[in-house]
Design brief:
Length: 235
């Protein structure tokens, strides 16, 4: 059987590999993300990741529990994605162009405990939230209402320091729902090692991406290709 190109230790967390490692190796002040007219360094990404992770822990999110991300391509997506992974939870980025019945199906199918949603997308999913029996918390990037959590306040109130959960390279890191097939979308499971192998075998060896490159893809972050080319390939 062919061996993986990258030899990873058994005890492994991909958020540490992509976020914390860059800071530890001296790239903390290097630009990691461009968003509109702002830049975000690896250190800023790490801080947001840690605050979101601690915020999720405060909501009693446990390892392997799903956190649905109904978010636009923003820094909050990045912090939520890596923050969930760092505590051993499982982010589930979903298509931002779907309708309420689709979101209800995914909430039920994933058994998501927390939904982090962008305010412009809240109106579509709001009518079905009460029908998702495992959903306990809704965090809104924007204006929250009633029992919902305001993302900015929620994250700001959490600690910027966070130790990673005791995960392994073969633990579940994220789900991505399939598209384009007949029937209901399928929740495709990705493990902690998968993004590292993809970044090495495709981004580095095929595309030739280096740490000095800037990348942009039209695909959104909830698509597998967009998630790679617009986010973790550079990390």
């Amino acid at each position: 059987m062919a061996q993986p190109v990258v030899d990873l230790p058994r005890e492994f967390n991909v958020a540490v590999e992509f976020v914390d490692k860059n800071v530890a190796e001296g790239r903390g002040d290097k630009v990691a993300l461009f968003y509109e007219d702002k830049t975000y360094t690896y250190r800023q990404v790490q801080e947001l990741t840690n605050r979101v992770g601690n915020g999720l822990l405060a909501l009693d999110v446990e390892p392997e529990q799903r956190v649905m991300l109904l978010l636009l391509d923003t820094p909050e997506f990045v912090g939520s994605f890596f923050g969930a992974i760092k505590i051993g939870a499982v982010p589930v980025p979903v298509n931002t162009l779907l309708k309420a019945p689709d979101y209800l199906y995914m909430l039920r199918d994933s058994r998501a405990k927390v939904l982090i949603v962008a305010e412009p997308l809240l109106a579509e999913v709001a009518p079905v939230l009460r029908q998702a029996p495992r959903l306990e918390h809704v965090v809104v990037v924007g204006k929250a209402q009633g029992p919902q959590h305001d993302f900015a306040r929620w994250a700001a109130g959490a600690s910027p320091a966070l130790d990673a959960a005791d995960t392994t390279r073969d633990d579940v890191a994220l789900w991505l729902y399939s598209s384009g097939s007949t029937g209901f979308p399928k929740g495709v499971v990705h493990l902690h090692h998968d993004m590292v192998y993809c970044a090495d075998t495709y981004a580095r060896q095929v595309l030739g991406i280096t740490e000095s490159d800037r990348t942009f893809a039209a695909a959104k972050l909830f698509f597998a290709y967009g998630l790679g080319d617009n986010l973790y390939f550079q990390f």
